[in-house]
Structures are given as structure tokens and as C-alpha cells.
Amino acid sequence: MRADPRFVRQPKAFWANVRTLSQDLGYTARGTGQVRIHSPPEMAASMGRLGLNTHHLVKGGRPTRLGADLEAYFRYRADVLNNFVEPRLMDAPEAKRLFAKMHARLSPCCYIPTNKQKHEKAGPALFTGLVNMLIEANSAGIAVDYDPRKLTTVTRNGAPLRTLARRVDGAFPSAVNPIAIWEIKEYYYTTTFGSRVADGVYETLLDGVELEELREHEGIDVQHVLMVDSHYTWWECGRSYLCRIIDMLNLGAVDEVLFGKEILERLPTIVKKWVAAHKTKRRAARQAR
User: Fold this and answer.
1) CB–CB of 248/254 below 8 Å?
2) What is the pLDDT of residue 36?
3) pTM listed for this prediction
């Protein structure tokens, strides 16, 4: 899933309102499990309860341009989560079947890590394995770093220009001067939405902030992709964090988010674009010599 063009260029104040309103009014409707849509009157009432002004949202009983834009965003966020994201999220049994099917079809040579479970739950990290298989199958033979054990670094004239604060889950083609980096959040065997899962969302936001600064100040673009799965963890326990992920996507902190089975739909296309960008970069480097 990519950002909606209507919202990608909204100012920071727009997202301040999104966060404030979401916190006060809630992310989901009680009893239905559906993601909420906030109307301008509800937004104004929320601001009043918080002791904040309301005129930037409603004037003379009518929504302002900002109020209407916020309502449109909340409607969009609810629609994509309720109707697009939720049906694509898998839990362990479905992911295990898909993993076996794709492993038999692709016969991968790429790195597939094991999970951290014990006894009958021990085995391959299913979603990570699926991601790695799909990347390998579409990478045109280019070596890929499926498990960077170092910080991502962008260089200029052979010297470090930026080094990200934390390690990521994968880099194409490598963690030094990558075309793209990605993060994978699979939580098939968790029983609650704990702080570790929540921290994963904010870690992705940190990476996005650093990449945004790199793009704005150095003109270097590294694509940033987030892939998440587990219907129980994200939908049953963590819908509010799915809302935050959609906010993060449209804020520009991540270029694309793939939810569960969506990797089958989008990842091959994404990787082929990485391959094309890599080949273009190599040609330019040869011509510059």
C-alpha cells in the first residue's frame, strides 16, 4: 500500500490534529471492532474538551477546509483498514500453508531465519521467509543482504555521509549505499499487544525521520518499506497501531507498507523497480569514471 496523494503533502499541523483527535476520540468503535470516522462536530467537541480552539475546524456551524480534509482522512483511514488491510492479514496456520506453497514453487537459496519459539511452534520465520523468497525470485540474480548485521550507511566520495541509528531487517543490494531498506514485523505467536510490538512502530518512524532528513538535505533517496503480519496481534489487539502505521505512511515516514498477503501482490513489482534503479546507478557510476 502506498500513500494517498490527497494527504502526502499535508503540513505537520495536519498530523498534529490527526494524532490529538485520534487520542481523544479513540481509534476504534466499541462493540463493532471497526476503525472510527470522526465528523467535524465530534472533532470540535474534542478540541473543546481539551481546552483548545475549535475555529480552525468548524466556523459558523460548517467545517473549515482543514475540518473537511481531516474528515476525509479519517474516512480514508477507516476504509483502507476495514476493507483492505484486515482481509490480508494472516495468522500462523495460513502463513505456514503459504510458506510451504511458495517454498515448493520457488526452491529458494536465500537466507530464511528461524523464529524464537520452542517445541511445536519452532520453525522458520514464516513471513520473513516469504518476503526473502519473493525478493530473491525477482532480484535478477543481484546479491541481496537479507540480514544486515550492521548499521545502514550512505557514503559520499568514499566517506560516511549518514549512518542510521539502528539496524534494519534487509537492504537492497547492501547496507552500504542501499537502493532500499525494509523492516518486517511478524508476531504470529504473541498473545497480547505488548510494548515490544509498539516499539517496532516507533522504530520505523525513527528510520523514516532520518531518511527524510537525508533526502531533504543531501538529495539522496533510499526507499523505505515496512511489512507487517499477524491478524490476531495487529487487528484483534493493535488496531490503534495500524492507524498509526497508516498515519506514518501518509506522513512520508515510510514509502510503502505491505500487510500480510499483500506481499504477493506488490513485492515483485517493487523489487523489479529496485533492480532497474540499481542498474541505472551502476551505469552512471561507470560513465563517471
Assistant:
1) yes
2) 92
3) 0.93
